[in-house]
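Re: beginner question about structure tokens

> Can someone show what the tokenized structure looks like for a real chain? I only ever see the sequence side.

Sure, here's an example I had lying around. Input first:
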Amino acid sequence: MYYFHAATGLYFRMPSIFVQFFLLTFLTVENSAVQSPICNSMIPSISLSNGVEMPQLAMGTCFRDTMKDENNPSGLPLNPNFFGFLPERTHRALTHALAMGYRHIDTALVYRSQKAIGSVLASHFASGALTREDLFITSKLYHGSMPGLTRKGTTLDLENMTPEEVSVAVETQFETILEELNLGYVDLMLLHWPAEMDSKHEGNAARRLAAWKVLEDCFSRGWARSIGVSNFSEAHIEQLMEDGAKILPMVNQIEASVYKQWNGIADYCRGKGIGLMAYSPLGMGKASLLADPILAGIASKHNVEPAQAAMRYLVQLGYAILPLSTSEKRLGQNMGVFSFELDDTDMETLGKLKSMNEGIGLPSPYGMS
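And the corresponding structure tokens:
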């Protein structure tokens, strides 16, 4: 089993029984002699509009099994009826990711992974292997209800709430996130969705503004170093500012892959200086992005995996990427997206694949008022 040490750039081979000993001794001593890994890592960063540096690779923590439907069991052999989030997968995956040099962690209240993240980080803080300043933590709140998938308390019944009720609920959710992570602040807090999925309710804009004003207040108190949105269209952001927002969102996290591009949203954000984050950068749709022969050919040309070429495409478009994996091998491969560069022909060729318009099945940002 190989472990990557970001500060030295070396891989270490060792039996898994020695991993904890390695983390608690060698990393602890060595860490005191180097700069903060968030500034000294092989992973580049994106400068947000307020000067905060956001690492361009994040570890996603939305671990789930949502395979079950009327015709298929879940992917859990011992629990074929399961449909939901699996936060227990976070502990081991995050431990490996941190050992490899990941320093940006993406989570959300609805994912239920934050307590596990807090537990893993606490062990690293206690040993001295990492400090809070070494890390960039992104979380999200203000998610509409999803009956059958989400638990009461992690989502909001938005269409039956007044703006005043939204303000109270969002501040409560913010405090819950900090408590679950066992942190004093996050580096980036996002509004998860602009409204209930596919909602055209006339009160959406007022509720959205109420939620955003809570984020502005928490930002002023230092509870978040930066604030932003997720799944917002350019119209949502424009309306937010016209209705009285004081701070332009610093980030918009949207679905993006070789097969799925919201070009209008991305171009708008670039023009406004809003940082872009791409979730599901490898897709999960019916068409298999990773089996695409064009992508495979470009990957072969650069002697990399198709997944690496697919994510490199997004990196060169200026996105921060947040792939999801529990595999040590894939976690390591994700780090490799910064070791090569696609040429103009590669970028143009991959850009044409967006015509597939194959995403993971979530609603369009344009489908909500």
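Each token stands for a local structural state, so reading them left to right follows the chain. DSSP finds twelve helices and 14 strands in the chain.
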